[in-house]
Each structure stands twice: as C-alpha cells, then as structure tokens.
Amino acid sequence: MTPFFYLVFLLLANESQVHSHHLHPSTVLTLSLQKKDFEMNDNHIMLNEKLIEKNHDIRNQKLGVFDILKEALIITFKNFNFIIFILLTSLPLFGFMVYYESFLQETLVETYDILKQTPGYSDWPVPKFIHNKMTKHVFYELLQLGFLYLVPLHLFEFCTVIVTVDLSSKIHAQERPMTLKEMKHRPICGARLRGTFITSIYVLYISTCTLLGLIWLVTYYFILENSIIEVFFAGFYGAGFLLLLVKYLEWSAMWNMSIVISVWEGIYGGEALALSDYLCKGSKGRGVLLMFVFFVWGLGLRLTCLYFGCYEGGIGIVAQISLFCLGNVLKWVVCMVYFCDCKKRTLEKKFDEEVERDVEFAA
C-alpha cells in the first residue's frame, strides 16, 4: 500500500501547486517539481511540433492567382447544370448589354471626334473647347448613358451576381455537382437579399466616383499629350491615372468581396466593406492581379469591337457581349473563391497566434 499512498501524495502536491498560491514551496516534494518541469518541457516540445506541422500545412494550402482562377474554372465548367442555370438567369443582362454596349461605343466614338480636335491647351477642370464643341445631342447622350449605367444595368447585373455567388458558393462548399432541383432549393431572399442590395449600392457609388476620376485623368492626358508646352502636365496626369488605376483594381477586389460577404454572411453596408478590407490584408496583391485579368478581358473585347466597328450592328457585338457575360460570371466565381481563401487564411492566422501564445505560456 505504501507506493499507492506515495503516488496520491504526489498528485495532491502537484494539484496544490496549480490551484493554491498560499502554500510555501518547501511543502512540495522535490520529486514532484522535477516531474512537473519534465511535463512542461514535454508539452512545450509537442506544441512546437504542432505549430511547425500546422504552418507547413498552411503553406501547402495557400492558393495563388492561378490556383484561384483554376478553381473558378473547375466550378464553372464541370457542372453542366450550373452553366444552364446561369445562362437562363443571364439572358436579361445579355439582352440589355447588347443595346447598352452599342450605345456606349457610339458615344465614345463621338466623344473621341471632339477630343481629337484639341487646340493644344486646356483649362481646369473642364477645357473650354469641349463646352464649345459639345452639342446638346452629345450632352443628352452622356446623361442617358449615365442613367443606363446607374439604374437598369446595375439591377440586371445585381440579379446575375446574386445567383452566381449563391450557387457557386454551394458548389464550392459541397465539392460536388448540384442538380437543378438543389439549385432552386432555399434561394437567397428576404433580409439577406435586401442587405446585399444595400451593399451593392455602396459599391456602385464608390466605384462610380473612382471611374469618373479615371475618365477625367485620361481625358486630360489625351488632350495634353500632343502639347509640347504642357508635356510635363501630360506626364503628371498619365502617372496619376496609372496610380489611380492600380488602386481601383485593389479596391474592386475589396468591393466585390463585400458583396460576396453579404450573400454568405448576411453582413451588409459599411460593415461588409470593413470586413472585406480586414480579410484582404496581406492578400491585396492577389486581388489586384485577379481584377487586372478581368479588366484586360473587358477592355480588350471593347477595343476590338471599337476597332472593327461592331457597334454598328451584326454578329460582332453579340459575340462581344457573349464573351463579356462569360467573363462576368467567371469574375464573380473567382471573387467567391478569393473570399473563401482569405477567410481561411485569417482563421488559420488566428489559430497560429493562439498556438504561439500557448507555446510562450508553456515556456
């Protein structure tokens, strides 16, 4: 019986060390102290090993730009039902975009004809010769173009975005193809739909202001590039345009993620934008590159159509809008995958910080 009572005494001594601070250290046996030190060192080693193993797994799981694009392509094209569903829901946007893009490109051509007649000088903030040469017809076209962009185009695109993000997120979470019946099950509606719409209004307002700044800078650069006297100012406006373009792409990734957050988490408005900004920390470079891919895609299609005069009618404008809608769907699937990866990284970072605190405490 003696070994048994001796073991009980050791356990009580260890327990009293942890929970009772008023006991004098001399009351604890030297053997129990050595045992406790050995256990703490052993736990310290195990925590370090777990931390190293976890960090190794995290590095292997990180998604780069090409990995995100690849994952988006897999989600989009390996699910035939998803393609059919998105095709049906994108028909209203497709029909409106054919009209809107034709009208936009005709207006761009007319505006270009006005700007290329620059006299070699400019006034701030709007050159006087633009006031003189811009007819009421062009002015009304610009107003109509602004209305079409802010109201009907935003509504049609919002409907497509809601369906795309909702379905692609379900496919991504289940990691298997979905039937049409499953896609119709529990659609997004109610408070979450209203919250997502509020977030989209926030994004529309901020992005429109930024786009107006880009248009203003590129207009001045175009006016001043042929002026020898004001070549310095032309370079200044050109550099400003490039800097703002990079920030616009960075912010676009954050804005788009805020809409994904509203669909997924039910958080909307300023809170969704703040959470998006928090999740994007450390991943803004990837966001810029991802948005740059789709920026080049849309700009390339538009410039090609302008060069060949597809806006005058025919199959060319239909082909352009078809490819543009395809790129739009891929962009939002990419934003969904990008959000999931950023959220996973943030959670893993918090886990690592907790493990490191445990290791420091155990040390």
TrEMBL record:
<keyword id="KW-0732">Signal</keyword>
<feature type="transmembrane region" description="Helical">
    <location>
        <begin position="287"/>
        <end position="309"/>
    </location>
</feature>
<keyword id="KW-1133">Transmembrane helix</keyword>
<feature type="signal peptide">
    <location>
        <begin position="1"/>
        <end position="20"/>
    </location>
</feature>
<feature type="transmembrane region" description="Helical">
    <location>
        <begin position="231"/>
        <end position="249"/>
    </location>
</feature>
<protein>
    <recommendedName>
        <fullName>Transmembrane protein</fullName>
    </recommendedName>
</protein>
<keyword id="KW-0472">Membrane</keyword>
<feature type="transmembrane region" description="Helical">
    <location>
        <begin position="202"/>
        <end position="224"/>
    </location>
</feature>
<feature type="transmembrane region" description="Helical">
    <location>
        <begin position="80"/>
        <end position="100"/>
    </location>
</feature>
<feature type="transmembrane region" description="Helical">
    <location>
        <begin position="315"/>
        <end position="340"/>
    </location>
</feature>
<keyword id="KW-0812">Transmembrane</keyword>
